[in-house]
Amino acid sequence: MAYRFDYLVIGSGIAGMSFALKVARYGRVALICKSTLEESNTFLAQGGVASVTDKAVDNFDKHIHDTMVAGDWLSDPEAVRKVVENAPDGIDFLVNHGVDFDRRPDGNFDLHREGGHSEFRILHHADNTGAEIQTSLIEEVRRHPNIDVFEHHFAVEIITQHHLGKIVTRRTSDITCYGAYVLDEESGRVETFLAKVTVMATGGVGAVYTTTTNPLTATGDGIAMTYRAKGTVKDMEFIQFHPTALYHPGDRPSFLITEAMRGYGAVLRNLDGTEFMQKYDPRLSLAPRDIVARAIDSEMKLHGTDHVYLDVTHKDAEETRRHFPNIYEHCLGIGIDITRDMIPVAPAAHYLCGGIKVDANGESSISRLYAIGECSCTGLHGGNRLASNSLIEAVVYADAAACHSAEAIKGIDWRDDVPEWNDEGTAHHEEMVLITQSAKEVNQIMGYYVGIVRSDLRLNRAWNRLDILYEETERLFKTSKPTRELCELRNMINVAYLIMRQAMERKESCGLHYTVDYPHR
Questions:
Q1: Helices and strands counted in the chain (H then E)
Q2: With left for phi above 0 and alpha for psi between -120 and 50, is residue 89 left, alpha or beta?
Q3: Beta-strand relationship, 453-454 and 376-377
Q4: I need a labelling partner for 115 at 20 to 30 A (CA). Which of 64, 306, 438, 480 fits?
């Protein structure tokens, strides 16, 4: 028997929960998450949320300009204006749902400045803003009578005409989403979730790389499902590597050292203590992330080192501890006192600027399927995301998708002819090593060949290696009962292929995509 909901939300970060809270007044909502509500990229976000709030010194045009510059002028101007001008309303939404942003003694927001921003406009909660947002929204979601939360449920595929026996290709103009097949991890059964509107809010893809700041659940599931359903996916080559992840071998994911620390005055240095950013950009350590990450990568290769240092020892110790209590305690736990010791850092895969192509309402190329948050490509980020623009984008587009779908849902009914998941002829696979080893191979391929600096030779080698893994994994999937680990591997391979293929198609260096074969735009 199939579940029936008005709205099916796949993913439980800031985007998915914001949408769920906004549409719950219009109908019943199923919120699917493959682990728990607490495990998401949102929870790990340290820096904050960008919004023009101090209009005495800041304005929308400045924020728009900063976003366009960071995005290498590849951003969609309309998407940029939409997010920037609606950001203050998004902040109000978060505050009204219990988010406690830090304030100064006069009651105004205590604003930070980060790389690429011309003004102080980053709202934050100490150095664990994401956790504050996630915790506040979870409380609201759990007590809402119209939202049903399904933890440890994994969406395997979205349901379209393909599952009704119709041939669907990328040229099919009327592809429609009717819900999703979802694996209940406890029972091992794949359940049918029918929905009038389905929303992808599955986050990023960092787990396809060995070194990442993302939770290891960030396997690109929504993007892979949408691509397999013949939806449009765009700008996957633009993978943002955060310049300053804590270098501590063995940690996966890597602990993030927020960009706000560089805004606070921290300086990047080589292992011998010399500064180096003056060689790469006049903005020094406050240059946009793509420039800083490439600079660090260059210095590491030049000197044959595994990391560089971030130095905040020249700042007042008490103030540093007050501004960055989470970072201070974490580093102290591994023997680094950031008020006296320089912090070893190296770049790590952090954020996807591309994803499922959506319009101004957050709707994908597949009817009744929306995508919001990091898995979507709204056009805001272009070639490189401006620091702290992602959380506010999620809130703004969650609102846009909620408003549009509340109207679109009228007159829509569920499909009664959707078949149950068919696993006839499949068996439980017993060799877990086949999956874990293939996942490691994906990580290695992406790290070595599709990283911060690319070349045609490296990308072609990645293509050949991934092709073998793809064939092996598809054969395994067709003969096995679905498990989360197998589905995640399948999605990782799909996403890795998209990153690699779209990188091969872009014959220029711009934004986060840098290739030695086309070093200039």
A1: 14, 18
A2: alpha
A3: unpaired
A4: 306
**Residue 254, CA atoms < 13 Å, CB-side half-sphere:** 27
Cis-peptide into 243, omega within 30 deg: no
How far apart (Å, rounded) are the C-alpha atoms in residues 235 and 154? 25
Q: Which of 484, 353, 428 is nearest to 72 (CA)?
A: 353
Closest listed residue to residue 51, CA positions, set 392, 457, 501: 392
- DSSP 8-class letter at 315: S
Active-site option among 113, 262, 269, 289:
289
Sequence-ordered list of residues with C-beta below 8 angstroms from that of 344, at least 6 positions apart, any chain: 246, 247, 248, 307, 308, 309, 336
pLDDT digits (tens, 9 = 90+) for 318-350: 999 999 999 999 999 999 999 999 999 999 999
Question: Whole-angstrom Cα distance, residue 434 to residue 479?
Answer: 14
Q: For residue 269, give the 3-state DSSP assignment.
A: strand
Closest of 233, 268, 283, 229 to residue 114, by C-alpha:
283
Question: What is each CA distance from 120 to 2, 49, 112, 113, 214, in whole angstroms?
Answer: 50, 11, 5, 4, 26
Structural tokens at position 186 = 């406890």
User: Could you give the residue ranges of the DSSP H alpha helices within 277-431?
Assistant: 289-303, 317-323, 325-332, 390-408
Reported as a single tens digit per residue, the pLDDT across 477-495 is 988 888 999 999 999 999 9
Distances 516 to 112, 285, 337, 454 between C-alpha atoms, Å: 35, 24, 39, 6
- Whether 340 sits among the annotated catalytic residues: the reply is no
